[in-house]
Amino acid sequence: MTHGTGAQGEYRERPSRLPDAAMWTRTPAPGPGATRPVLPDGCMDLLWTEGRLFVAGPDTRAHLPGAAGTAGRHVGIRFHPGTAPAILGVPAHELRDRRVDLADLWTATRVRRLTARVDSARDPVAALEDLALDRAADTGPPDPFLAE
Predict the structure, then answer these.
(1) Whole-number pLDDT of residue 64
(2) Among 49, 43, 86, which Cα is nearest to 65's?
């Protein structure tokens, strides 16, 4: 488990029960200049922040958290490269360098229900992980070519 606390806030990470994924949380420190850029890693993330589920596509450049309405506490599941398209139902290149509301990819009714489920959970990390596990059970495995 990775832990970090300091001037940039707190970050925690652990392996997910979903293969080829990791769960993480980030709570930024208050004040201006308290966050560092997220460096490109080729991964896609499904993220929750209170009242919102969204997807971070694979980045080709650093992304500054807090931009484009992404400030505040985050819970995420980071999918290893090549694994998210099967679960999210969208090719990675369509989300490159973007942050997209999940309702733009799935039906709004479904996303409202899922968001409410994570919002009301005692443990949002476990709730988001369960959401991803449920979705993975309903979809096929990742393209083995992409995993290589």
Answers:
(1) 78
(2) 49
Please report the pLDDT score of residue 68 as a whole number: 46
Is the CA virtual torsion 74, 77, 79, 83 positive or negative? negative
Expressed in percent and rounded to 5, the helix, strand and coil fractions of the chain are: 30, 30, 40
Backbone angles phi, psi at 60, to 5 degrees: -105, -5
> What local confidence, expressed as pLDDT, does residue 69 receive?
46
CATH assignment of the domain containing 18: 2.60.120
Cβ count near 13 (within 10 Å): 16
pLDDT at 73: 82
User: pLDDT under 70 in the chain at which residues?
Assistant: 1-8, 31-35, 66-71, 143, 146-148
Position 148 in a domain: no
State how many domains the chain has: 1
Which pTM was predicted?
0.85
Cα–Cα distance, 81 to 56 (Å, whole number): 13
- The answer to the question of residue 135 being in a domain is yes
Q: Which residue segment(s) compose the domain that 114 sits in?
A: 2-139
Could you tell me if 73 and 50 are in contact, meaning their C-beta atoms sit under 8 angstroms apart?
Answer: yes
Which residues lie closer than 8 Å to 110 by C-beta, 6 or more apart?
none
